[in-house]
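Posting for a labmate who doesn't have an account.
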Amino acid sequence: MKRAPDGLQAPDAQLDTRLGSRLAALRAERGWSLGELAERSGISRSTLSRAERAEISPTASMLNRLCAVYGRTMSQLLSEVESEPALLVRAAEQPVWEDRSAGFVRRSVSPPHAGLRAELVEGRLTEGADIEYDRPPVPGLEQHVWVLEGALDVTVQEVEHRLDAGDCLRMRVWGPTRFRCAGPGAVRYALAVVLP
């Protein structure tokens, strides 16, 4: 199994292909054209088409918008294209997804599982990384952000919170959020996500 330079598992080369197919299937299940999905998500038709054909790797913001349209969390969507999670998830088997353009690496530590409402994600942002989500994937989503290393600025309900190592921010997400690593250095944090 290939490892990324920081010790994380390298992203699955086939994940974008499976993700594109799943996005196309979700749209087809609803009987929407690319134009209809573009109107609902605010993402251009050409970008949606290229993502469905795996010509581009979707960004975290793009997946968040699509998840909001489809009423699922990002982890739920990714779990639909990853192999079925076991009860015990060994570190080497935890799926990793990367948005290189944003400087974001996401490890699904405890992937979504049938019958469970919570999941655990490890996030890493490089210094200067700034990710804005215009809406939650599921309104009222409960999140707990625990900074493990570095510092993270999180904006929720138009209030910015500075979290240093050991700090935890608890919230229900109804509107836009922003995760920013101003530095110095990168930040590593745990994100607990609980469906309402």
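Reply:
Got it, the structure tokens are right above this. The helical segments are 15-30, 34-41, 45-52, 60-70, 74-79.
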